[in-house]
Amino acid sequence: MILTLKLLGCIFLACFLGCTSALHEDQAGKFDWHQKFIGPIKFVVNDPNQPKRILLGASNNVIGAVHGNTGNILYRHLLEPAGKLLYFGVYEEKQCVAVSLLPENLVKVRLFGITTGVLTDEWAETVVTATHATESNGKVYVIDASEGALPDVSVTVLDGQTANTNKYRLGISRGANVLCDLSGRYLICAQDKVVSVLNLMDGSVRNHQEGSTVSYISTSGSGEISAVNLGNSALSSTYIILENQKAGPELLPVKVSPQPGLILSQTKTEDRTLLCITRLESSHSIQLNVYNRNGEQADPKPVKVSSDVPLLSLAIAKVYHYNSGYGLVAFTTDATLIATRADSSVASGDAQIEWSRQEALSSVLAVEMVDYPSEVGPSWNPYQASLDVISSFIARVKYEVETIVSGESLYSSAEDRFGLRKVIVFLTAAGKVVGMDSTTGSIIYTFVLPDFSMFSDSTAQLYIQRPAKYTPLKPQATVIYRSLSSKGAMLLAFDPVEGKPLDEPKSYPAILQTQMIGHAGEETKFIKPILLLDQTGTVHTYPAQVKDVPNSYFFVAHKGSSPKLEGYDIKYMDNKLKGRLLWDLNLGQSEIIGVHAKIQSERVHSQGRVLPDRSVSYKYMNPNLAVVVTAEHEAGNINLYLVDAVSGALIHSFWHKKCRGPVHVVHSEHWLVYSLFNEKNRRYEINSVELYEGQKQSNSTAFSSFAAPPVQPIIVKQSFIYPAAIQHMTHTRTEKGITNKDILLALPTGGVMELPRIVLQPRLTQQHYTQQIQDEDGVIHSLPYVPELPMPADMVINYNQSVRRVDGIKTWPTRLESTCLVLVYGNGK
Amino acid sequence: MPSTMWGCVLLFTFFLTAYGSVSDKLESDFFDNPEITLQLSHSFDNPDAGVLNFVPRGSITIRNFRGPRFTSSQKDLTLNDLNQLKKIASEDGYYFLKTTIKTPSGEQSYRSFTHAKSLLDSGLSDIVRVNLNPNGDIISVSYAMARNDFYSVPHHLGSNRPPPQKFNTTILVHHGETGPMPDTAPYLEKLEHERLAKERGEDPRDNRSFFAKYWMYIVPIALLVLLSGASNPEEGGR
């Protein structure tokens, strides 16, 4: 199993054979790996005693420290997942302070030892609301400059014992479009051309008029020099803020070129503090200029930092002084942390970007895995079977030449006969696609999606349109996301093994739903067509030459206060495909908290279950069955609807009173396992449901949602108490579906628990259980029902490699039955 | 004479209770389940028209969800409609059904469909399935065909069998159930039972017979008795 964990950038991979095989000590790290990330970085500071130690704070409430030479994590703390980091910085030389805003406006201040990362102190205070925070002389300033309150700003000063709130009025008018940022002890707010600067210490305010509209603010952060760069996409101006006791803070212009995109930072040398202005000169070089606190250039010759990889644009650039040279740590807008090597910085020489960290992996939107194109493995290749002898020979020669040209590392070696090595394709929230080798966790490629933004429900889609088994045809993956500029949908097809685009980006109008057809033929070269239903009812296909899609239906779940399910068919008319509404289902006043379909490509080995009396109970395996979970927040109810996504028939419904989410659902074969929290009994419960057709099978070859008379499944259900909270739940997958499935549960303790599904199978209760049944029916199938599920420690598959804040677990079958790859990732939200 | 009549009425009432499918209702059900009328209207799919025109098909009154007991009043399909249905069936089109229910909180309508061909193959025998939540409110209406062998089953008119024109609608009611709950009571009872048994010094798991349990005491005693019994006649003989 490959387990990749994205928690604060944490990936864990494990591979194991059979079910519940605990690892031996000498196997640790052999079949698994674990990568850690910080997240979307907002604060970069250096340890004043040892500038090589770079302290990082990320907006998803994660703090940590990395080594300036290598970028390796020295320590990392995952604070509350629901919190937001307002400030992270150095506190009285020996410590660092993190200020987080938690739900219900609780501000939590924590102090950590700067060298070890050990928590030394913490305190909390409730405020009205908070948007910014800073620290000065051992006091924490929490600032509320939220849009509703402006132009009034309230500043709360916390020192561990007391909290004093002061209110100040800025010189801007009420209303929206106000940008605010902190620079040292000053709050700078800009609205249109007016800039208002507030001194947090004495409350003095001074207004300033800019020459042009201000659309961004960048500041030098906390420190002795308070500087700010204001501007828009064409022009910018830079000021140093000076203290003026009588007239309020004064803006002193710094003579730098008025280009946009200047990033400020400050650094302390032995004797003075310097202001550093960083600019991205070209995609491969960064320029640093150093100024003293009077705004005069301290070093006439700028320092150049060159980079091998192209850089898009910088979000943060922190310059520091080390060994009488300058070092640079920068965070780009595509979520990469880049830095020079601290030891190699020399006095005036130019530097080179030496290490980088792909922090984009800390928030993954979608994951898929593809095999390496390989000669080993499935011997029958449908593509080559469809060619005649000569073209088959030419294709083979071409493929061999390409293999030699592109190098062997791209293709799996002969040792990987079991298909354990795959390429993991990540689609991240930063709009970056990352390809990773599943055996080592090393990054094969990354590329940034043009004009990227997420759909309104914070998602984007990733499909594998053509798997790798059709060599010499290349595998094809496709991402679908929302265009930032046009708000429509964008689609980009690429090779998931090499990371090269296979087609131009395609744009479509705003879409309602996408789906990939489950089968592919020779006419599309074994590419599974993607269908996009737009809001006007037109269906677009990719590849565009697909004209007819028989027996295809769309299932759309409209979220919102009164959710609705809709079904569409697809018909070819007037030279285009049209989606037409077939059915609708109104779910009443509630919120859809999840829609769970089955994995279409999965195989089910056995059609029925043998009962103790030797008769067979056939499984109800409707491939179109979807589970829709809704929450009625006022009444505190959780409802589950089992809906046939094609015919729109409601197959069954479950109603849970006084329960709340999160509801994790595992839906596979003929069964359903879901977890929820019971408010009445205050415990987590796992419910298990099985659907059977009965002693007769309605149709042994194929299932039809339109069968007459309709198949009404027999529902078998049971509930269990789980003694721990559940962060995520999924099931294992194998090639042929012969191996018994296990449920993987991510626990808040950091463990990933493997629970055989058979333990959750609905079974006889104690009263109906007799010795005779056990003698008849073996051991495991007829253990009597025990309401509480066990949590044995040797079922934790990730031994001591804790993975916290899990967002998802992805499993993937290998060519070896009974083995599956597990990827656990987390730390997003 | 009046007493005989009352007897008949009582007897009839008894039959009603026993065979719930008879579409009448008892006084007590009126308060438990106020009757609900499903207004059915249908539309024959027209690929050229963007909006479907629904025309009334009839109504079904459900008097009791248990059973369920209902009365159906539906118009027969006209020959014109039937021809249109056949035409749609040949084009693999759809037949749409809209169910409208008046509730105190307003009017609620549900849209469902089937293939026109399936409707013909079923001989207009359809199933309207009403899904209820645990409170007894209607949450959705599903539509399906009851059979698919109208033309294939043998009929005394052979292939000249007239096409169906009369709707034969079945109502199914599905009660939503509350989800499963952990069944702790019997398990705790069993634990308590075992604890008590232990206090009394019995092992409830040991259900062997008396002899099987104490043979090690019985056999030596029996041997002793046998041996001592064997020596007695000698003494007696002396």
UniProtKB/TrEMBL annotation, chain A:
Signal sequence, renumbered to the chain: 1-22
Domain of life: Eukaryota
Compartment(s): Endoplasmic reticulum membrane
Transmembrane keyword on record: yes
ER membrane protein complex subunit 1 C-terminal domain: residues covered: 668-826
InterPro entries xref list: Beta-prop_EMC1_1st (IPR058545), EMC1 (IPR026895), EMC1_C (IPR011678), Quinoprotein_ADH-like_sf (IPR011047)
SUPFAM superfamilies listed in its UniProt record: Quinoprotein alcohol dehydrogenase-like
EMC1 first beta-propeller domain location: 22-98
Lineage: Eukaryota, Metazoa, Ecdysozoa, Arthropoda, Hexapoda
UniProt membrane topology term: Single-pass type I membrane protein
Quaternary data: Component of the ER membrane protein complex (EMC).
Species this chain originates from: Orchesella dallaii
Keywords associated with the record: Endoplasmic reticulum, Glycoprotein, Membrane, Signal, Transmembrane, Transmembrane helix
Protein name: ER membrane protein complex subunit 1
Sequence similarity: Belongs to the EMC1 family.
Automatic annotation (TrEMBL), chain B:
Segment forming the signal sequence: 1-20
Topology versus the membrane: Single-pass type I membrane protein
Location within or outside the cell: Endoplasmic reticulum membrane
Keyword Transmembrane helix among UniProt keywords: yes
Keyword set, alphabetical order: Endoplasmic reticulum, Membrane, Signal, Transmembrane, Transmembrane helix
Primary site of residence: endoplasmic reticulum
Claim: Lyase is one of the keywords in the record: no
Highest taxon in the source lineage: Eukaryota
Residue intervals passing through the bilayer: 214-232
A Pfam match: ECM10
Family: Belongs to the EMC10 family.
Protein name according to UniProt: ER membrane protein complex subunit 10
The species this protein was found in: Orchesella dallaii
